[in-house]
Amino acid sequence: MPDKCLFKQLVRHYYFILFIVIRGISMTVKISPLAPKTFAKLPPIKGVRLQTTEAGIKYKGRTDLLFIIFDEAANVAGVFTRSKCPSAPVDHCRKILSHGVARGVVINSGNANAFTGKNGIATTEATAKAAADCLGSKPQEIYLASTGVIGEPMDASRFTGLLPEMAKNAKEDKWLDAVKAIMTTDTFPKLATRTIDFDGHPVIINGIAKGAGMIAPNMGTMLSFIVTDAPVDAAILQEILSDKVRDTFNAITVDSDTSTSDTLLLFATGTANKEIKSLTQKNDPRYQALAEGVYEILHELSLQVVTDGEGAHHLIEVRVEGATTNEAAKTIARSIANSPLVKTAVAGEDANWGRVVMAVGKAGVEADRDRLAIWFGPHRLAVDGERDPHYSEEEASNYMKGTHIVIKADIGLGNGCATIWSCDLTKEYVEINGDYRS
Amino acid sequence: MPDKCLFKQLVRHYYFILFIVIRGISMTVKISPLAPKTFAKLPPIKGVRLQTTEAGIKYKGRTDLLFIIFDEAANVAGVFTRSKCPSAPVDHCRKILSHGVARGVVINSGNANAFTGKNGIATTEATAKAAADCLGSKPQEIYLASTGVIGEPMDASRFTGLLPEMAKNAKEDKWLDAVKAIMTTDTFPKLATRTIDFDGHPVIINGIAKGAGMIAPNMGTMLSFIVTDAPVDAAILQEILSDKVRDTFNAITVDSDTSTSDTLLLFATGTANKEIKSLTQKNDPRYQALAEGVYEILHELSLQVVTDGEGAHHLIEVRVEGATTNEAAKTIARSIANSPLVKTAVAGEDANWGRVVMAVGKAGVEADRDRLAIWFGPHRLAVDGERDPHYSEEEASNYMKGTHIVIKADIGLGNGCATIWSCDLTKEYVEINGDYRS
């Protein structure tokens, strides 16, 4: 009955086109003006299969469940939120991390499974068990992450039944689908990839992330998953991750709010090439190459998270130099990057350096008004405790019309320096977060 | 020539009516929805004369300079911003405070004289000298305060010439005019008064303040001036002020930003009645009465500052109980009160208690998710680490439609408690602060 087939195909096409049109319209309206022009295309990694589905956890008509499967056990490292009220999935991951081995990751959007009491623990246990059953592994080899509303009970039975079919259909070439399923208020998917040399063999590092709001990671970001096919010991992975998170996901802030659910996991499958010897020592010359590759992925993803900060129109890079220590520099940089008055000034494209003085002053660490100098991009606006005599309001105002604003403060006391990335505070941020739950 | 007089009167009347109409229109458009229905009418204090004028420092067509004159020397106490980059007037006041005696206060709006280097110091010196010359006093008896844009040089010659005329015309009944001259983005004047009993004689305490934005006093508020006609030693005044500021001006936050210019001064003229003996000892039974009166003024003014927070639609009262210490409770309360996500949820009238959990978790002090309970007004929404089983979304949502939102968090660990007042974060806040300088 070829006619029936044709009809079915037409129907299928119709819905597909409708989907594209609606998605297109919603993307045009909503996408961050700072979104990258193109997205990285992540190559498949051997033995890493991904599958998404619509579990209807909160959203309708979009994917909200992601299953990442490692066909052979992968080594794993992780860093998590420092919140005193972490989510149930964060508790689960922390507990199993000492095993150092992963066979799968189950991630959902729409519900954070945070502050959900015993129900939350039951949900993580049931999910880990269901996923492990699909893969013939143990629950302590299944990592979990959830993002969305806090405090809503989440019933695992809602999606555990979907995992076997997902495991069956999972494919290696679904990285873009994967990241789309874990978006909440993100307006674009966050992806990064690098290929580096390991003993003459190419090895891949793929990374995905979600961000958008509640971003002042006191450790990592919201959710981010990095996978390499290089063979690397779990302890080495952890060392690289803990080191490289400092100046990447720990150096960004959207709104100074720290999520209950921040989770950053790094996996190594060792599937690139069986001839490559495992990386087990820090003095192995390949350590630096891998660490640099991981840093680049983390840097790229964390900047994508900031540029997709809720309502963001400007990327703000705050560089502090001349503080008494690096720690003091970071405190001052955070004070500037989190100041609502600095962030609204950037939103208004106003070179209001007086608010930078205010933010330096309130940071609480050593500063001397009369040694302070402030730049907006290449323009020095203030020096030696007063307005720069050569300062041109017109030039500074022109600079503020750009989308990447660099604010530099030289404290003039020592050699401590730090950089923090943030975004501006706009009416859209208020709009998004005044309506998020309803 | 009675005709000419009548004409003059008509002209005067015409401008007065025009002023009222324009003021009325602008007030209707702009005034905070949380503004008090009536303003306190401050009684004259003997020997305290006030005068305002239009110096054109930044604003046109409104008063921006206030001269407060003490005909006889008043005792004085003060607390100031803890900013590491304080304004030149703050430096001046701090320097002269040990004298403990005041003859006048010169306050301007439109320019903060902060981060203005040597020019800023020259301006404070010239202003203090000019005011002292008018009054036959010394410069170290003249207090100064400035509020407005940071980093713009301010030339004292712009207004020092106006002071002699102001001193001549100053009157005791101009408290409302006085506070209007020091407003910046305030939408209503902040006033409070009390009369208490001192040895059978009534003594007055009058207070005025300005607030609006850059409000997270790590000590006091923006600018506030309290005057009593009771006879009180400077050391006693200082003791009362330092004690009572803690739970008033130090317990409010609009945007977590601390000004370079926060100044709170308390004066005692002793002009109420010559028969009253001076208060010089803390164990004097009148100490408590005065301290309570000052507390009430500070409390009332600080709440007025919060309800006039830039763009505020809701007053937020955050009460934290059951923390390990009072200090820990205050840290948690501040974390909730400053969280952009909590503040936007209140703006959106959304009982999003999950964000309160987040803010408790990120505060960095001891907390236990599974002992935490959260109330919005009388409604308990969460208890024992999960949503309250008896929680009604409808009741909580109705509660959020009010203008005074009480958020209570019981940490369940000890007896530490604290209250912080704040306001919501609205699109108007972003609008006001994106345009402020231009």
TrEMBL record, chains A, B:
Record site: Involved in the stabilization of negative charge on the oxyanion by the formation of the oxyanion hole: T147, G148
Catalytic activity: N(2)-acetyl-L-ornithine + L-glutamate = N-acetyl-L-glutamate + L-ornithine; L-glutamate + acetyl-CoA = N-acetyl-L-glutamate + CoA + H(+)
Active-site positions on this chain: T221
GO BP field: L-arginine biosynthetic process; ornithine biosynthetic process
Pathway: Amino-acid biosynthesis; L-arginine biosynthesis; L-ornithine and N-acetyl-L-glutamate from L-glutamate and N(2)-acetyl-L-ornithine (cyclic): step 1/1; Amino-acid biosynthesis; L-arginine biosynthesis; N(2)-acetyl-L-ornithine from L-glutamate: step 1/4
Pfam families associated with the record: ArgJ (PF01960)
Subcellular location: Cytoplasm
EC number in record: 2.3.1.35, 2.3.1.1
Site for Cleavage, residues: G220, T221
Binding site for substrate: T184, K210, T221, E310, N433, S438
GO MF annotations in UniProt: L-glutamate N-acetyltransferase activity; L-glutamate N-acetyltransferase activity, acting on acetyl-L-ornithine as donor
GO terms for cellular component: cytoplasm
Annotated InterPro entries: Arg_biosynth_ArgJ (IPR002813), ArgJ-like_dom_sf (IPR016117), ArgJ_beta_C (IPR042195)
Family membership noted in the UniProt record: Belongs to the ArgJ family.
Role this protein plays: Catalyzes two activities which are involved in the cyclic version of arginine biosynthesis: the synthesis of N-acetylglutamate from glutamate and acetyl-CoA as the acetyl donor, and of ornithine by transacetylation between N(2)-acetylornithine and glutamate.
NCBIfam families, per the entry: ArgJ, PRK05388.1
UniProt-recorded name of the protein: Arginine biosynthesis bifunctional protein ArgJ
Taxonomic source organism: Bartonella apihabitans
Gene assigned in the entry: argJ
